[in-house]
Amino acid sequence: MGPLSLRMVGASVRGPAHARAGEPNQDAWYARIRDRSALAVVADGMGSRSAAREGARAAVAACRSAWRHWAAAPQGSAEDLVRLIEVFWRLRLGLIPPEDAATTCLVCALRPDGTGVALQLGDGLIGVREGPGSFRALTPERSTFGSMTRALGTPHGLRDWLMEPVGPLNDGMALLLASDGVSDDLLPEKRSGFVDWLLEDIAPGQQPGRGLARALRDWPVPKHLDDKTVVLLWGEAR
Description:
- The protein is α+β, with helices and mostly antiparallel strands.
- The protein has one domain (4-237): Phosphatase 2c, domain 1.
- It has helices at 16-21, 52-71, 78-93, 180-183, 191-202, 208-217; strands spanning 4-13, 27-34, 37-44, 105-110, 116-121, 125-129, 136-137, 162-166, 174-178, 228-237.
- α2 (52-71) packs across α3 (78-93).
- The chain is globular.
C-alpha cells in the first residue's frame, strides 16, 4: 500500500424553516488537514437563543484555536482540549451572554501522528466508517425523546461531553460529523449507506462541496425543516 493522505468534504445549508422566515443558517462548520493532523467541527446554534448563529461561529473559531495548542502538546488529554474549547468559546463571544449564544459542538481532532479524539456536546452524530458497508456511531443513542440538549451556554459539566479516541485513519476509514438536521433523519441502518454514498458519489466530483450542498438542499425526507451540516474526513491511499 502506498502513502496515505487525508481528505475531507463538508457543506452546510439553510433549512426550509429558516428560509421561509428569512433567517440565516444557524449551523457552522470547519475542516482543515495538515499532513496527518486534521480538525473537523460542526456547531448547531440553538434556534431558541437570540445569538445562536454567533454562538455556532464562535464555537468553530474556539475549536480552531484550541486545536492548534492541543495538537502541539503530545501529552494533552481529551479533557484538556475540552477545557480549551470552553475557554476560547467564551472569549470569542465577547460581550454576548453565553446563554444567548448556546450551541452544540461536534469535534474530531487528530494530531500529527494521526491519533486523536472525537468530542461532542449536545445533539448531532459522530461516527466511524471502518470499511465499505460498516458504520459505528460514537454518539450514544438518545435515552428519552425530547430530552434536554446539553450545549455550550447551558448548564453542563465535563462529564456531559462525549470523549472517544479516534485515528489514525487508514485507507477507507472515515469520520462523519452531522448536525441533527441530518442525523435525526438517518435511521441507524441507513448510516453506513449514507457514508458510502458520500465517498463513492460525492467525493469524486470536481466540486464535491457544492455537490454535497445541493444534495442537502434536495433532502429527500418529507417536511424536513432544520439546517443541515455534514463533514466527512477520510483516509485514502495515494
